[in-house]
Amino acid sequence: MSENLYEILAARFPADRARPCFLLSDGSAISYGQLETAAGRIAALLRERGVEVGDRVVVQAEKSPQAVMLYLAVLKLGAVYVPLNTAYTAKEIEYFVGDAEPRLVVTDAVALERDSQAFAPCGACAPRQASDIASIIYTSGTTGRSKGAMLSHGALADNGFALTRAWRFTDEDVLLHALPIFHVHGLFVALHCVFLSGAAMVWLPKYEDDAVVLGLARSTVMMGVPTFYTRLLANPAFTRDAAAHMRLFVCGSAPLLPSTFAEFEARTGQRILERYGMSEAVIITSNPIDGERVAGSVGYPLPGVDLRISGGDTGVIEIKGPSVFTGYWRNPQKTAEEFTADGWFITGDVGRRDPDGRVWISGRAKDLIISGGFNVYPKEVELLIDELEGVVESAVIGVPHPDFGEAVVAVVIGSADAEAIQEKAREGLAAFKTPKRVFMVADLPRNAMGKVQKNLLRETYSGTFTAT
Ligand code: AMP
Asked: 43: closest CA among 69, 22, 20?
């Protein structure tokens, strides 16, 4: 039996194909039937352009329903979908195109869909096995070259089903979709939950303050990154009433500050459900839909996911499970490096499990600071600083230091005084963990998913102790 992801998704589309899939800002809708037909037409066009089973199709296009149709068309043909961040420059694209060797590069999904209207929809799907590759997601690549994580039809289907069940999606749901679709969060997590439950989406091209509040009025679930939630809270139009009928707010892709969680609960009476995932495994853990959602914890491994901590109570998180990627595209060496001899994927995230089995993440292993031979977990220092009066958020990094190798530096958003922060940190932390310098800033550098780019901070502050 074919395990083509398109077939698995389409088998769950609503029986009544006239039901809406996309709800657009102008009040119009695109039905499941229209989505299916357009995917079939685009597949026919791509086939005519020579796209065959296993060929890569690179897509760097603005977010649109047509880009989703294109994604489905690529799956249908058994080709491999390779989305790229819309912010990448021509030079960066050159690298990705060189690496992926696509049959086709699409930069305008709307025009492609228009051109496809001349074609009769191709009906059948290319038969695929669960282990065949459906998509390559290039990692954000904060160290070295970005690597292409290969995700199979089976991995994506399995994770989609697990999430649909874990978050109890039904065809009554309406998801507010404001995430980019070049990343696993907006592409797989959001779309697959919707398709596998026959739900609808309020479709927004991007996060935009007023559009999101308006969209919430028509929605039941929202998926976001932490910056969506801080922006919502900064918007006075986001009231308790505006959120009253929502059944679920999901957050992930970067750590949600406990203060944001608390402020959100105070404003709306609802507790954000935080989950943890990555390009190489889609979603790994989630807070429960029933039961306690704990601020600062990313919850429990999803059913089917095995999770262990290497080397002690706090250490690198390793996982096994059906949604783990197949390997890095044309990079067997890197793939081998990131799996243990007994087949566990080394996530690169440092964390621990509490006695209840909940997972707590303290950051990326590569962000660990070694100062004077002692290990400093940035998260521990950040948590202390974030609690202080006048602090909004902090990022703690290690920078070169002539005596200590690395020294702890805190970069802080807020109105507090740098020296006062240092003083408080000294009271609460061992000397080697206390920031040797505190810099107050207006903003922290973030990527499209709201993740603080510590590599950029390390560059910016690299000369703090070593500049001549
Ligand atoms: P990406 O592959 O771009 O999705 O990035 C994955 C990384 O984002 C993970 O390895 C984590 O470091 C981080 N991440 C994702 N979700 C969370 C979360 N809920 N809390 C903390 N870090 C997260």
From this structure: 69
Hey, what amino acid is at 372?
Answer: G
Q: Angle at CA 323, nearest 5°, toward 317 and 325?
A: 80
Q: Whose Cα sits closest to atom 4 in ligand 1?
A: 278
Does 278 contact ligand 1 (Cβ within 6 A)?
yes
Predicted confidence (pLDDT) at residue 10 exceeds the cutoff of 80: yes
Does this model's pTM top 0.90? My answer is yes
Q: SS3 helix, strand, coil % of the chain, rounded to 5?
A: 35, 25, 40
Instruction: Kindly state if the Cβ of 452 falls inside 6 Å of ligand 1.
Output: no
What is the CATH T-level fold of the domain 368-460, as seen in this structure? GMP Synthetase; Chain A, domain 3 (3.30.300)
Question: Rounded CA gap, 321 and 285, in Å?
Answer: 11
Residue 276 beta carbon below 6 angstroms from any ligand 1 atom: yes
Cα(77) to centroid(ligand 1), Å:
31
pLDDT digits (tens, 9 = 90+) for 223-267: 999 999 999 999 999 999 999 999 999 999 999 999 999 999 999
Nearest residue (CA) to ligand 1, atom 20 = 255
Beta-bridged to residue 410, according to DSSP, are 396, 438
**217: pLDDT strictly greater than 70:** yes
Compute the mean pLDDT over every residue in the chain, rounded to the nearest whole number: 96
Scanning 220-360, the segments in alpha helix (DSSP H) are 226-234, 240-243, 258-268, 332-337
What is the location of CATH 3.40.50.12780 in the chain?
5-360
Assess whether pLDDT exceeds 70 at residue 141.
no
Confidence of residue 312 (pLDDT cuts 50, 70, 90): confident
Q: How many Å apart are CA 427 and CA 388, to the nearest integer?
A: 12
- According to CATH, what is the number of the domain 5-360? 3.40.50.12780
CATH 3.30.300.30 intervals, the chain: 368-460
Inter-helix orientation angle 258-268/226-234, to 10°? 50
Give yes or no for residue 254 CB within 6 A of ligand 1: yes
Residue of minimum CA distance from atom 8 in ligand 1: 253
